[in-house]
């Protein structure tokens, strides 16, 4: 069982995305921000832990995690 869900720091994420060249600090349409190591598992809002991936891929990752009982 994972610990209490933590909330992402949107301001930090926006800054990271701006540094990566994403206009307005937002991923393009059809893409989302994904934490490689979930916040609830001790992941952080850092450039090393944040990826921009397709929305469909993001959904599949979380579906797989739920199926394994990881979230």
How are the secondary structure elements laid out?
Layout (H helix, E strand, L loop, with lengths): L9 H10 L11 E5 L14 E5 H14 L3
Antiparallel strand pairs: 1-2
List keywords for this structure.
single chain, alpha+beta, globular
Mean pLDDT: 92
Q: Helix- and strand-based class?
A: alpha+beta
Number of helices: 2
| Global Rg | 13 Å
Can you give the helix content as a percent range? 25-40%
State the separation between the terminal residues, measured CA to CA.
Answer: 8 Å
Give the neighbour order of strands across the main sheet: 1-2
Order of helices and strands: HEEH
Number of E-type strands: 2
What sort of overall outline do the alpha carbons produce when their principal axes are compared? Answer: globular
Strand content: 5-15%
Largest sheet: 2 strands, antiparallel
Low-confidence stretches: none
Total domain count? 1
Written description of the protein model:
By secondary structure, the protein is of the alpha+beta class. The protein has one domain. 34% of the residues lie in helices and 14% in strands. The protein contains two helices and two strands. The protein has helices at 10-19, 55-68; strands at residues 31-35, 50-54. Strands 1-2 form a two-stranded antiparallel sheet. The longest helix is centred in the C-terminal third of the chain and has 14 residues, at 55-68. The N and C termini lie close together (8 Å).
